């Protein structure tokens, strides 16, 4: 609020609300005018008196009455003007006095309000530190209770996820069997099909490879759904107009629209018109097939490109299984060794069944609400008996897409799928160069049977004594019994 007299804004210390000096100065203006008016009136009175005196001395008998009347009227008018100015000055001074009194009353009222507020603030501030400490303690206790409930809920969800994965694996018939007289102590089967070791895929039939790869892709997709994790290499299961499973590489995963099945045209798959309206569309990513129609040695000779893509698909599937194991705390051995990373059967079994059998219950991994817990209410990783279901992309706690989850994923150092595919191709090609067995067609076996029949005839003649002198030169017999008609020993 500004001063009505001086017009300056109010300040509590430097400029009072209504300064008495300004009021006095304002009154001085009227007083000075009144003084000037009185001096002027006195001067005029003196002049009038002198004029009257001089006029009385010089006045003529006929003009005395008229001049006296004029002088009286003039003096009366001057007196009335002075009185009018004086009354206005007095009225203005009274008004200023009333305003000053009202301002003082307002100041007193505001002082009383400020004093009352100070008293209320002092009473409210009394014991404020204790109240703040109590509120802080209550807040920390509620946070600990929420963390306890959150951790307990997350633990229950993790156990549920692990249980669902194990039950799904059991329904698919995933099991581990002991092997005797074999370099590897166990073999892993899904249903009635053995999960072939990647380095021995050349000896497997295409039906066996396609069957166990399809089953592994299906159960891995189901497990990723239960665990709420997004695999680095996207799997595509069979669906309408897509009869067999495929897998995308790491660059193309989750960055594409609908893709046609390999070997079919996109226009026929998505209903493109005959006018070729989809011909100008850019080609999408090419999925890698998780199936074969021929044995791998034949496929490598007839279609090297498809052979390379199939090996890349298998290594991408193994990479997905190993990555899922690492995110769920399941050990796969040495992460830099090809045999440990690409052991699909063992890693998948340990992820879905083996870890639950070893850990039994996941144990209590959350603190009590009254205790002072560690950061985020979590215990050290060493005290956890099982991590399966803990980290995921579907929950806010232990979120793999957050900052801590991204750091955790970056800490998983696995060889790239291309490097794994190159190593697998090298292993398989080294076995192809010098095989102990070779695949023969039916025509070749016809010649072998003819030779075997001739040798049997010679042996019969030797037994009957019709052939002499051949006892020391008996040829080695090649019997066709015990073979299935598709292998023979190759001479070294």
UniProtKB/TrEMBL annotation:
GO CC terms, sorted: endosome; lytic vacuole; protein-containing complex
Q: Which domain of life is it from?
A: Eukaryota
Protein name, per record: Autophagy-related protein 14
Region of interest called Disordered, as start-end residue ranges on this chain: 265-290, 448-492
Any single GO molecular-function term of the entry would be: SNARE binding
Q: In its keyword annotation, does this UniProt entry include Coiled coil?
A: yes
What the entry lists under InterPro entries is as follows: UV_resistance/autophagy_Atg14 (IPR018791)
One Pfam family from the UniProt entry?
A: ATG14
Which positions, given as ranges, span the membrane? none
Q: Which residues form a coiled coil?
A: 86-113
Record key words, sorted: Coiled coil
Family per record: Belongs to the ATG14 family.
Species whose genome carries this gene: Verticillium dahliae (Verticillium wilt)
Record carries keyword Hydrolase: no
GO biological process annotations for this chain's record? SNARE complex assembly
């Amino acid at each position: 609020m500004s001063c009505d007299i001086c017009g300056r804004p109010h300040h509590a210390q430097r400029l009072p609300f209504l300064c008495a000096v300004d009021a006095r100065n304002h009154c001085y203006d009227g007083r000075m005018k009144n003084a000037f008016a009185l001096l002027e009136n006195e001067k005029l009175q003196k002049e009038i008196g002198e004029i009257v005196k001089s006029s009385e001395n010089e006045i003529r008998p006929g003009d005395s009455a008229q001049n006296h009347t004029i002088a009286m009227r003039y003096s009366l008018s001057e007196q009335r003007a002075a009185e009018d100015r004086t009354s206005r000055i007095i009225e203005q001074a009274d008004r200023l006095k009333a305003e000053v009194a009202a301002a003082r009353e307002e100041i007193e009222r505001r002082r009383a309000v400020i004093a009352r507020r100070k008293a209320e603030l002092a009473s409210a501030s009394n014991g404020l530190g204790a109240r703040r400490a109590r509120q802080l303690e209550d807040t920390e206790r509620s946070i600990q209770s929420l963390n306890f409930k959150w951790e307990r809920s997350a633990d229950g969800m993790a156990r549920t996820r692990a249980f669902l994965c194990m039950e799904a694996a059991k329904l698919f018939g995933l099991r581990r069997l002991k092997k005797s007289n074999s370099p590897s102590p166990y073999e892993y089967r899904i249903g009635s099909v053995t999960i072939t070791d990647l380095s021995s895929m050349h000896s497997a039939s295409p039906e066996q490879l396609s069957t166990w790869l399809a089953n592994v892709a299906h159960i891995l997709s189901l497990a990723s759904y239960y665990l709420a994790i997004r695999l680095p290499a996207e799997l595509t299961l069979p669906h309408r107009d897509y009869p067999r499973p495929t897998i995308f590489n790491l660059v193309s995963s989750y960055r594409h629209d609908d893709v046609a099945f390999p070997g079919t045209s996109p226009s026929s798959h998505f209903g493109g018109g005959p006018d070729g309206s989809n011909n100008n569309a850019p080609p999408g990513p090419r999925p890698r097939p998780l199936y074969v129609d021929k044995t791998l040695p034949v496929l490598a000779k007839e279609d090297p490109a498809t052979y390379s893509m199939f090996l890349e698909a298998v290594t991408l599937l193994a990479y997905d299984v190993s990555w899922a194991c690492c995110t769920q705390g399941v050990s796969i051995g040495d992460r830099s060794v090809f045999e440990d990373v690409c052991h699909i059967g063992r890693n998948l079994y340990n992820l879905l069944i083996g870890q639950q059998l070893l850990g039994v219950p996941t144990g209590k991994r959350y603190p009590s609400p009254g205790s002072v817990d560690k950061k985020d209410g979590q215990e050290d990783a060493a005290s956890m008996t099982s991590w399966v279901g803990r980290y995921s992309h579907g929950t806010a706690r232990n979120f793999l897409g957050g900052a801590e989850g991204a750091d955790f994923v970056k800490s998983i150092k696995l060889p790239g799928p291309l490097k794994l595919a190159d190593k697998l191709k090298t292993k398989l090609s080294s076995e192809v160069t010098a095989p102990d067995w070779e695949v023969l067609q039916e025509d070749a076996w016809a010649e072998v049977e003819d030779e075997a029949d001739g040798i049997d005839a010679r042996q019969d003649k030797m037994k009957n004594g019709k052939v002499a002198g051949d006892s020391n030169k008996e040829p080695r017999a090649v019997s066709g019994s015990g073979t299935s008609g598709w292998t023979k020993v190759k001479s070294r």
